[in-house]
């Protein structure tokens, strides 16, 4: 909307007023940001306008700094690391990371910070003040950047775009985290073990494992977790609930992350390709697991016997053979197992459910493996061959029985 905005200083109170609403402030820069946020177009000739976007300011210096966003110029460089930035103030804040200097101290708790902005945000926690309000809903927050992020939920705007794939998001931090998928970089490292992650939240969850505090316990088995979210995911293994459903096909799963990976199959966002075969996937760790089939690498080794395998989960399952642990328990009878797959098959015996159905005949099975064996009968394939005669069969157990004829067992 075109509203005449005269940035006018009151001689008595030294306040700057917006003529579009009742907003006032003691700082010109704050008023300018208010005007930008409210989409008020200025007619004051004293304002300096950007020739590329809608930004305007009251000083040539501010405009010069702003233009660096368009040009990419970062003239201020750190002499300790590779950091560079657009303003001297930003460099000064950055240098505090190297010196550990935190001059801004809270007088109500032990919090201290190297940045005035972070300090102000912290103080709002004590006062409970949330001065920035959304005009669309009842949301309010402690700073303008949070409000801008929130407003994008209403507008659907995702200004931060990946230059490698089609991913776009609402915040710069989310884009930075996403880029780690392409680079494989894992900057967040545990100071106790070799674990590292691309996300700070994953590192925090990992560190809790070292403290051995797992307050969230399953009421069905001995499982316990460091987070309530993980416990909820675990409980779905007992209940069979798959609350995350694909909107394109019949796929459903227990975890949102699994659904996200599945959806990439529909969007063709398969970023990681094997250079030995035609296999491709949408995560680096899946590709690493696959490549081990070609290389024969089995990095996960049992510390009790000679067993080694390609995945950490397989090693965990194997270790239960030594410990006798059977964490997956049937809620109907006394059956328990070391593997979730075995429990699922067992539960089908109680329910008489046979979810795997043949699309050619009426055959159905409680396991996908049995269905695959059945399908060989239709296609006539007999992959198991005797190396002593011409005998072939569809099932490995049949081949074992046949071999006894040659050995006389």
Structure description:
Among the domains are: about 55 residues, Double Stranded RNA Binding Domain; about 80 residues, Double Stranded RNA Binding Domain (2-Layer Sandwich), CATH 3.30.160.60; about 50 residues, Double Stranded RNA Binding Domain (2-Layer Sandwich), CATH 3.30.160.60; about 50 residues, Classic Zinc Finger (Double Stranded RNA Binding Domain, 2-Layer Sandwich), CATH 3.30.160.60. The N terminus is likely disordered. About 0% of the residues are buried. About 40% of the residues lie in helices and about 15% in strands. The protein is α+β, with helices and mostly antiparallel strands and about 400 residues long. The strands form 14 sheets. It has a two-stranded antiparallel ribbon with strand order 1-2. Strands 3-4 form a two-stranded antiparallel sheet. The chain contains 14 helices and 28 strands.
